[in-house]
Structure formats: C-alpha cells, structure tokens
Amino acid sequence: MAQTQVQNDQGDLIRILLSVLLPPIGVAMEVGITKHFWINVVLTILGYVPGIVHAVYIIAKK
User: How far is CA 15 from CA 4, 30, 50, in A?
Assistant: First the structure.
C-alpha cells in the first residue's frame, strides 16, 4: 500500500514538472484530451502563467 503511494507521488511530481515546461502536456497526462486540456491550451496561449496555475490545480486536486 505504501509503495503505491510513493509511485503516485513520483508520478505527480513528474506531471507538475512537465506542467511548468508545457502546461497542456501535464494536463493531458492527468486527464487526457478532455475539456480541461482545451481550457489549459487557451489559458496557456493567453498567458503562460495562468496555464501553469491551471495545470498544477488539475494535478493537485486529484
């Protein structure tokens, strides 16, 4: 049980790091190509920081 939690935490860390570099990639890894992905694409186009904030929020709320 504890091993699974460690793997989940490592996966979240990787997704968050990817979200800082390319926010839509982190969101796509977390939820797939859904409405959240497209919202993140628009936010990233409008401003890089809002895209990062949204991506980290989507990953952290899981």
Answer: 16, 8, 16
Task: Give Cα 1 to chain centroid, integer Å.
Answer: 24
- pTM (2 d.p.): 0.82
Q: How many CA atoms lie within 13 A of 59 on its CB side?
A: 28
| Dihedral (CA of 35, 40, 31, 29) sign | positive
pLDDT digits (tens, 9 = 90+) for 38-55: 999 999 999 999 999 999
Q: 3-state SS string over 1-62?
A: CHHHHHHHHHHHHHHHHHHHHCHHHHHHHHHCCCHHHHHHHHHHHHCHHHHHHHHHHHHHCC
